[in-house]
Design brief:
Elements: E1 4-7, H1 12-20, E2 28-32, E3 36-41, E4 44-49, E5 53-60, H2 64-67, E6 69-72, E7 79-82, E8 87-98, E9 106-112, H3 117-133
Parallel strand pairs: 7-9
Antiparallel strand pairs: 1-2, 2-3, 3-4, 5-8, 6-7, 8-9
Length: about 140
């Protein structure tokens, strides 16, 4: 089983603010392997089996006040772990997950602003496709 780790893309303008709430490069990352996806963001986190991954979309050009920090959306109940306004990966789940408020709120999606959104999206897409066809990811790429 190959595990791939993706670092968050920290915009220097927000790095100090994020550090004050415990979000630093050593406490913020996403990993995916053949069994599960895990996202850490300081004291916040998501862990879900690959079988719960429904879709993945790259989104871009956020407003800072809707994207930076641990965020929840009133519009779609999605969660965001955000460190930059340039781009992120939105992961949609079959079953909503907990991310921000313990077990009180469940989120149907999570956006993460990693350094290489294309590679993370591709890694997730491969696992979704493998689950749909009943094959295993060969682990040859992230």
């Amino acid at each position: 089983m190959t595990s791939h780790r993706f670092a968050f893309d920290f915009d220097p303008r927000f790095r100090r603010l994020l550090a004050m709430i415990g979000v630093r490069p050593d406490t913020a990352w996403v990993t995916i392997d053949d069994a599960e996806l895990t996202a850490r963001f300081g004291r916040f986190g998501v862990r879900t089996p690959v079988s719960n991954l429904a879709d993945v979309i790259i989104t871009r050009d956020y407003r800072w006040y809707t994207a930076i920090g641990p965020r929840g959306s009133f519009a779609d109940r999605g969660a965001t772990f955000g460190t930059t306004t340039s781009a992120g990966v939105c992961v949609c789940f079959h079953e909503p997950v907990t991310a921000l408020a313990g077990r009180l709120v469940r989120h149907p999606g999570l956006t993460v602003t990693v350094e290489d959104p294309e590679a993370l999206a591709a890694a997730i897409r491969r696992r979704i496709d493998a689950a749909a066809t009943g094959t295993a990811d060969d682990g040859s790429a992230p």
